[in-house]
Write a structure and sequence with these properties.
Elements: E1 3-4, H1 7-27, E2 33-39, H2 43-59, E3 62-68, H3 74-86, E4 92-95, H4 105-111, H5 123-130, H6 139-150, E5 159-163, H7 170-179, E6 183-187, H8 194-198, E7 203-206, E8 224-227, E9 231-232, E10 238-239, H9 244-247, E11 253-254, H10 262-279
Parallel strand pairs: 1-11, 2-3, 2-4, 5-6, 5-7, 7-8, 8-11
Antiparallel strand pairs: 9-10
């Protein structure tokens, strides 16, 4: 039986630790504040933004919501970001992605001050990560590291395979595993002999974006399998990139979907906000 890595439980532990930190800061007269900007009303984005507000409320972080219409221009959005960059009472700025097609996503990410970039997407944050300097780390990969550490899964010296090379998950994930002294291989759509490469992994992180693609034939006996994917299947049930039913009997430890990596993303966002407040 694989160890089930419980992201709900671990994210609650992190949020409770942050709640204590925030209460201490409040007693010293400091309030942490996160500004969340949502352009348009994409249903998935609305759910995410709602979850972020709930997490802020639970921890005691003040949240400012900027819910602007779909037709908001790039200039108007940049104006809001500029105002928030200059506001000393705001510690973190988050623009919910994706933004509408007429807005250049890269331009928006680059406009956020690196000291308030709690999503960890700014080139300065990514650069700091790649050379081992302090900076905000993309929330999902940071959450995966916490899942491993708090589940007592050793990273140092282990063969780590990351499937996926996106800027948000794959690349920062590989750098964080490297930082923890893992031996890291990155796989993607052009990787030859993908199955063979995956079967070497002591820790397999799957962020490929294809429902249930990774079955037991990709997994070494006793490996730790982290599933970053989230999809709805033909029966409208949530599933990941890993075929859980097939992989769970082979794995030593595995994250479920839902309830694995998902809750960690918001916990680490909250952690980045508190860090931003402490660094202020």
């Amino acid at each position: 039986m694989a160890q089930i890595i419980d992201g709900k439980l671990i994210s609650k532990q992190i949020k409770d630790e942050l709640k204590e930190k925030v209460a201490t800061l409040k007693s010293e007269g400091k309030e942490i504040c996160l500004a969340v900007i949502q352009v348009g009303n994409d249903p998935a984005s609305t759910v995410y933004v709602g979850n972020k507000k709930k997490a802020c409320e639970y921890i005691g972080i003040k949240s400012l919501a900027y819910e602007v219409p779909e037709e908001t221009t790039e200039e108007e959005l940049l104006g809001i970001i500029d105002k928030l960059n200059k506001d000393d009472s705001v510690h973190g700025i988050l623009v919910q992605l994706p933004v509408p097609k007429h807005i250049n996503e890269e331009k928006i990410i680059n406009a956020i001050s690196p000291s308030k970039d709690v999503d960890g997407f700014h080139p300065a944050s990514v650069g700091a990560l790649s050379i081992g300097q302090k900076g905000f780390v993309s929330c999902t990969p940071a959450g995966v590291i916490q899942l491993l550490k708090r589940s007592n899964i050793e990273i140092s010296g282990k063969e780590c395979v990351v499937i996926g090379r996106s800027n948000i998950v794959g690349k920062p994930m590989s750098m964080l595993l490297l930082r923890e002294n893992g031996t890291v291989t990155i796989c993607h759509s052009r990787t030859k002999e993908l199955k063979e490469v995956c079967k070497r992994a002591d820790i397999l992180v799957v962020a490929i974006g294809k429902p249930r693609m990774i079955d037991a034939s990709y997994v070494k006996e006793g490996a730790t399998v982290i599933d970053v994917g989230i999809h709805r299947d033909e029966n409208n049930k949530l599933c990941g990139d890993v075929d859980y039913a097939s992989v769970e009997p082979v794995a030593g430890a595995i994250t479920p979907v839902p309830g694995g990596v998902g809750p960690m993303t918001i916990a680490m966002l909250m952690n980045n906000c508190v860090e931003a407040g402490l660094n202020d």
